[in-house]
Amino acid sequence: MVPGKMILGSLFLGTLVYLFGAGSLTLMAEQTKRPFTVADDIETSLLLPLEDGPNVRFSPDGSYFAVYSERGNLARNQVEDSLRFYRSQEVENFLAHAKESRLPSPAWVVNRSEKEGPIIHNWRWLADSSGVAFLQPAANGNYQLVLADLRKKTIEPLTSPSEQLGEYALFDIRDRSHYVYTAADPQDAKSVPEKQERESHAPAIVGTGRRLEELLFADDPLVKKIVTAPKGYLWAVVGNKRFEVKHDGKALVPQAQPLGRGLALAPDARTVALTLPVPEVPSSWETLYPPPSASSFYRIHAGQGSARQFVRVDLQTGAVHALTDAPVSMDGGWIAYGGPDWSSNGNQIVLPGTFVKAQDNAPSRPCVAIVNIRSDASSCVEMIKSSHADNPTDAGSHTVIAARFVDGDEQRVLVSFWKENWSTWTTKYEWKGNRWEMIGQSEGEEQSGLSGLQVRVKQDLNEAPLLVASMKGNSRVIWDPNSQLKDIQLGQASVYTWKDKEGREQKGGLYKPANDQAGRRYPLVLQTHGFLEEGFRPSGTGFGPAYAARALAGAGIAVLQLGEQCAAPAPNEGACAVSGYEAAANQLVADGLVDPDKIGIIGFSRTCYYVMEALTTGSSLHLKAASVTSGVMETYFQYMQSPEGSEANTVIGAAPFGEGLQQWLKRSPGFNLDKITTPLLVNAEGRGINVLEMWEPYAGLHYLHKPVDLIVLNTDEHVLTNPAVRLASQGGSVDWFRFWLKGEEDPDPAKVDQYKRWRELRKLQEANHKVAAGN
Questions:
Q1: What are the beta bridge partners of residue 110?
Q2: Which of 68, 164, 358, 389 is the most exposed place for a label (fewest CB within 10 A)?
């Protein structure tokens, strides 16, 4: 800018400040920014905690740390994952020199991109800090265990693409010559397609004992991934020898623990801790290890295949030794996540959720346990609690998600957990001679190096993630992965509280339309399936299809992201969830923010049932529009796909046979579709089994001449990651609720057919209203 223009610009700015004030200038600047869209959501780099731990991790020697991030690239229609490696010393130098403006550069960046994510699975440092290992997709559809060598800056395969490691393969590693993993036996992997080929030419096949998905959709990617996928057996590499680990000549099939690594290789690489099915559950376990309440759906049953236990396996001999001679807590109905972890000397192992056999053979409840490998003695760090209504003493309970030794020290343990509002906390324990004593508790999972350098992801509901380093009182940003958001109007999100009908305080995330005007009432969309207060989550949840909180707010619709504090599965589960939705919406209406005649709701997975419950039971919400995507609805059609062991018997209160059928006619949403007056968008994921699962509400409402639309997303994912499919799902939500709650249509020519179809649904809706009014 030339000097004259600079002077004029300064005079103009000064005049604006005089006339409108600095605050008004900020508002004007915000108004010039474009609104946040679904495309912005997809292309935002997220640095959220991972299933197997935090996304920032220091190397064992503290000399490096790595940070994992993921974003979508719509132009390429790919998910992009990255691991950025930083030298701790360079970051410490940056903190020590406040005038240094140049951000520290990564020592190495590993980038991976594929059609679907995540691409970098379950990454972890090698014990000697020379690099990290992770699972990544192979070109043939299998997965490979690879080593990112930090010193050589190379990616080396540790397993062959021909080995059938699935998406959910387990592994652990000490170094490039000592690791364990799960993969299919070559003969098993070969037998599945051979069997399908034989059956395709056979005049008849036996269907008895087989799953419906396998018979109808043998080629469906989801069926291949979950139903007909061969078992993952335990394999080991010791030195230069690769072999399948067997016990008494039989292959071992480790069981995954939710959110945990599943396998924990001992420091000497001779033994692995894992979870195996109990061959024959003794009848005494039914009373020794009771569920949280008499009404619990999950409990221990005598016989085969009903329980798992933590064991350690000698890799050379295949010998299996039970660590507690008791089941994992999850199988007894006590929720706890995570896998085992060894102390650095190999003497102790921590188990995040297991029953421990009492010395007097009395019934017991599970705990986070420490097992001494030499003596087999065990001690409890903390008890696992239950949030079930039958356990009032467990009020304020939390859910254990991981347990590990602090830097391998057998005298100190960290237990990470979710509070009732889903925020992540960590409790630190120390061994005090004869018991474990809590010595501290903090929010989050901040990572610290050996020198005291701390690195964390700074983010909240409104602040996109920044990588921040701190040391000796100095704190500075070292990476901003989302600088593009500075030119976009994000709007405001905040924690919103209300009380349910029982007087319990509830929390949710409230996303207000940009430039919210006092006194104006807005349409509202309720997004279900949980609220996480921590982290930047533009969609509202950070997972799942259909949700689009900030994009909906950018379109002038208020959004409340909320959870369900209801026991599940349980007879009052649906009513409990709907009651919470009603209380939240009613308070927003009372606050003057929401128009009571313009409320919509989104259900996904488990909460599809809750939405269908709200639509069929005369909820006071008076919903104007709704959508459900790929989930449980407790309908007869879904039940008959897999009736054995169905939890629907617990939720509905009976099996749908004999007198129990009357209960189903009253309570199952599928038998009450005639009560629905709300336009419903039904989304199925994939053209296979999920269409069948989502067919009943669509077909029934279509037959009844109710406004319903069916969209089949071209995917085999449940939690969507592919950018194009996310745009179809989340963008479809924005269009659907703008149409029904605001009467607006996107002028995009590609959507002409969509709105033509929806206008016909609106005519159908109007006709139904006239019939209901007696006109």
A1: 83
A2: 358
DSSP letters of 503-537? S-EEEEEEEEPTT--TT--EEEEEE-S----SS--
Dist. CA 617–CA 567, nearest whole Å: 19
Question: Residues 639, 643, 646, 651: what is their CA dihedral angle, to the nearest 10 degrees?
Answer: 50
- Residue 287 near residue 299, CB atoms below 8 Å: no
Q: Report whether the peptide linkage leading into residue 118 is cis, meaning its omega lies within 30 degrees of zero.
A: yes
Cα(656)–Cα(401) distance, rounded to whole angstroms?
36
The CA-based dihedral angle spanning residues 198, 244, 141, 43, taken in that order and rounded to the nearest 10 degrees: 150
Are the C-beta atoms of 492 and 516 separated by less than 8 Å?
yes
CA–CA gap between residue 491 and residue 510 (Å, rounded): 11
Torsion of CA 194, 195, 196, 201, to 10 degrees: 100
Q: Among candidates 256, 249, 268, 245, which has minimal Cα distance to 373?
A: 268
Residue that is written with structure tokens 């054995």 in the block: 644
User: Which H, E and C letters describe 381-448, residue by residue?
Assistant: EEECCCCCCCCHHHCCCCEEEEEEEECCEEEEEEEEEECCCCCEEEEEEEECCCCEEEEEEEECCCEE
Looking at residue 392, its pLDDT comes to 44
> Which tokens is 185 given?
């036996």
Whole-model pTM? Answer: 0.91
Exposure string of 8-23, with b = 16+ CB inside 10 Å and e = fewer, is eeeeeeeeeeeeeeee
With tokens 């343990």, the residue in question is 413
Tell me, what's the pLDDT at 467?
96
Distance from the Cα of residue 407 to its chain's centroid: 27
55/44 Cα distance (integer angstroms): 16
- The SS3 call for residue 568 is coil
Per-residue pLDDT, 39: 97
The owner of tokens 């098993």 is: 188
CA angle 657-659-665, nearest 5°? 75
The pLDDT, as a whole number, for residue 443 is 81
Residue pLDDT, tens place only, 252-268: 999 877 666 789 999 99
Q: Hey, is 570 helix, strand or coil?
A: coil
Please report where in the chains the tokens 């909460």 appear, as a residue.
607
What pLDDT score does 30 carry?
55
d(CA 16, CA 102): 34
Radius of gyration from C-alpha coordinates of the chain: 28
The helix (H) or strand (E) run that includes residue 691 is helix 689-703
- Positions of the chain with pLDDT lower than 70, given as ranges: 1-31, 189, 258-260, 387-397, 421, 445-446, 775
Looking at residue 673, what DSSP letter applies?
G
| Distance (Å, whole) CA 635 – CA 707 | 20
**552, 559 Cβ separation under 8 angstroms:** yes
Residue 25 has what pLDDT? 41
Return d(Cα 555, Cα 731) in angstroms, integer: 11
SS3 179: strand
CB of 435 closer than 8 Å to CB of 429: no
Predicted local confidence at residue 775, as pLDDT = 62
**Structural element, H or E, at residue 201:** helix 186-201
Question: What's the confidence (pLDDT) of residue 191?
Answer: 73
**Is the torsion defined by CA of 261, 252, 359, 392 positive or negative?**
positive
> Distance between CA 715 and CA 686 in Å, rounded?
5
Is the Cβ–Cβ distance between 289 and 333 less than 8 Å?
Answer: no
CA distances from 278 to 325, 343, 350, 357, 388 (A): 10, 26, 20, 15, 27
Q: How far apart are CA 758 and CA 557, in angstroms?
A: 19
- Neighbouring C-alpha atoms within 13 Å toward the C-beta of 268: 10
Strands (E), 99-166: 108-114, 121-125, 131-137, 143-149, 154-157
Yes or no: say if 330 and 353 are a contact pair by the CB < 8 Å rule. yes
